[in-house]
Structure formats: structure tokens, C-alpha cells
């Protein structure tokens, strides 16, 4: 494992978290709220302040995960979720001019896949899908030992594939519980822990929908492991059985026999994943 000092940054719509990383160890974290409704320059200043807080003279590179659309080659960030002022930001250029070290950008789903591949459940594999199940649904793909982004950094957007009356995101994100049970995913989880029948039924149904999404992933990329992340993955024990039950009819039996499906157990996965972008370039 690379032992150089790196910085990983998780830029969200309301918060930024920056971590100083050596190997798989996070030495220091800065976490702060950002002015989501602020100007482009105001949010940039807050991002730079967070990175500066964990900066060390020996840091070799900075990796940043962004919840939005990117041009990773040019280092441009477009339309960041919940930051209206960020329409087209040359973030790589701005930060490299400021810190004078290489900066690498990617979306949060790709960062999650990179984190699990380098530090988590995907170590030792060549093909991994990191599937984020939160307020949305998206995946990062490691194919033959390389992050696969697609031409426009849009690979892995399985949540947007049409399914039933909507798309997979409608049925497989945390919003499933509000759509069909008028409760939040967190409320469903707390109720399931208390063995309340309605919550257990909700997770059973959720597992059925997720099985169809996972079948699509298996048809498309046939990974060795699918790692579940995001808020819903914390409840994996409540939908694991129905998920596997409804994967049993997959027509290619060796695929089902060999696939591993696991929930992420890594702390600060977003920060680690952003730093892992630097490892891919080293």
C-alpha cells in the first residue's frame, strides 16, 4: 500500500470533510459546513480552508469526490447537487494553482468503488461494483483492475434505468420507504430493529426490487463483488435474505454461485475513496 501522504476530500452539498491519509490510516480530519447557497467564490474559499487545515508539507496529491457531473480529464465540475452557484467550475486548475500539487477529481460513486477496492471489501479483486443506496442510487465500476468512468464520467448510473413505473432509483433508494410506507428509511430501520412487522415487510419488498437492479449489474459487468454503501446498506441484514432468494432464478448459475454481495464496513469511506483517486494516478 502506498505510504505517501495524501489528502482526500468529500465535498457534499452541505458539508466538506478533508482527511490527511497515510496508507489506509486517516491521521487528521477537518469537517465543516459550507455555504450551500453562497457564491462560487465563497464555497471555493471554504473548500480551500478545509484542505489547508489538514495540509502537510509532505502531501503528494489531493483527491476530491464530488456529487455532480465532471469532466475528469479537464478537471471541470458541473452542477453540484445543492450548490446552485457551481455551474462550471475549473476546480482542478484552481486547486493546483493554490496548493502546487496534483489534484484529481471524480464523482462520489466512483470514489466509493475506489475506496472499497483499495481499502475494503474489494481488495484482491479485479472487478468490483460499488453500489451506493442512499437518497439516490449510483455505482462505481472497477473493471479489469481499472476504474471505468465512461466517456462522460457517467458509467454506473444504474439508478436511472427504467424499471416498473419509474426507474431503479425510485424503488432502490432510501426514498422507497417514503414512497410506499410513508416513513423514512431511518424510521424503517429503527422499527425493523424492534421487529415491527410492517418494517420487516418493507425491507423484504425492498430486497426484491434490489435483486432486479443487481441482476442488471450482473448482466452488464459481471463483477466478482458488489459492495453496498450509502445509508440503506446499514440495514442489509433486513433485506439480505429476500435479495438472495430473488437472485436464485438468474439464468447463469455460476455467476450467482461466485458473486459476493456485502455491505461496506469501512469508516470515512468517502474520504478514503477520494484519496484513492491519487493512488490510481501514481
From TrEMBL:
Checking Pfam families in the record gives: ROK
Alphabetized GO MF terms: kinase activity
Highest taxon of the source?
Bacteria
| InterPro entries linked | ATPase_NBD (IPR043129), ROK (IPR000600)
Q: Alphabetically list the UniProt keywords.
A: Kinase, Transferase
The family note in this entry says:
Belongs to the ROK (NagC/XylR) family.
The protein depicted here goes by the name Glucokinase
Q: Which organism is it from?
A: Pedobacter caeni
Amino acid at each position: 500500500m502506498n505510504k505517501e501522504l495524501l489528502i482526500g476530500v468529500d465535498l457534499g452539498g452541505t458539508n466538506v470533510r478533508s482527511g490527511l491519509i497515510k496508507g489506509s490510516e486517516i491521521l487528521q480530519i477537518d469537517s465543516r459546513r459550507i455555504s450551500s447557497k453562497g457564491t462560487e467564490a465563497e464555497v471555493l474559499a471554504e473548500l480551500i480552508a478545509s484542505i489547508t487545515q489538514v495540509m502537510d508539507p509532505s502531501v503528494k496529491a489531493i483527491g476530491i469526490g464530488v456529487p455532480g457531473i465532471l469532466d475528469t480529464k479537464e478537471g471541470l465540475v458541473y452542477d453540484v447537487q445543492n450548490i446552485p452557484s457551481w455551474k462550471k467550475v475549473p476546480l482542478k486548475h484552481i486547486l493546483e494553482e493554490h496548493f502546487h500539487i496534483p489534484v484529481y477529481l471524480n464523482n462520489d460513486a466512483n470514489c466509493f468503488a475506489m475506496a472499497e477496492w483499495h481499502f475494503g471489501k474489494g481488495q484482491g479483486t479485479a472487478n468490483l461494483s460499488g453500489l451506493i443506496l442512499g437518497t439516490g442510487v449510483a455505482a462505481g465500476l472497477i473493471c479489469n483492475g481499472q476504474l471505468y468512468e465512461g466517456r462522460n464520467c457517467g458509467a454506473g448510473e444504474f439508478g436511472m434505468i427504467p424499471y416498473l413505473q419509474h426507474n431503479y432509483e425510485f424503488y432502490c433508494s432510501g426514498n422507497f420507504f417514503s414512497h410506499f410506507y410513508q416513513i423514512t428509511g431511518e424510521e424503517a430501520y429503527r422499527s425493523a430493529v424492534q421487529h415491527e412487522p410492517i418494517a420487516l415487510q418493507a425491507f423484504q419488498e425492498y430486497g426484491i426490487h434490489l435483486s432486479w437492479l443487481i441482476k442488471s449489474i450482473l448482466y452488464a459487468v459481471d463483477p466478482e463483488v458488489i459492495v453496498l454503501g450509502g445509508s440503506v446498506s446499514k440495514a442489509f441484514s433486513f433485506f439480505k435474505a429476500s435479495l438472495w432468494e430473488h437472485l436464485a432464478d438468474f439464468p447463469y448459475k455460476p455467476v450467482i454461485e461466485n458473486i459476493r454481495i456485502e455491505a461496506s464496513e469501512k469508516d470515512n469511506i468517502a474520504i478514503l475513496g477520494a484519496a484513492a483517486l491519487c493512488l490510481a494516478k501514481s
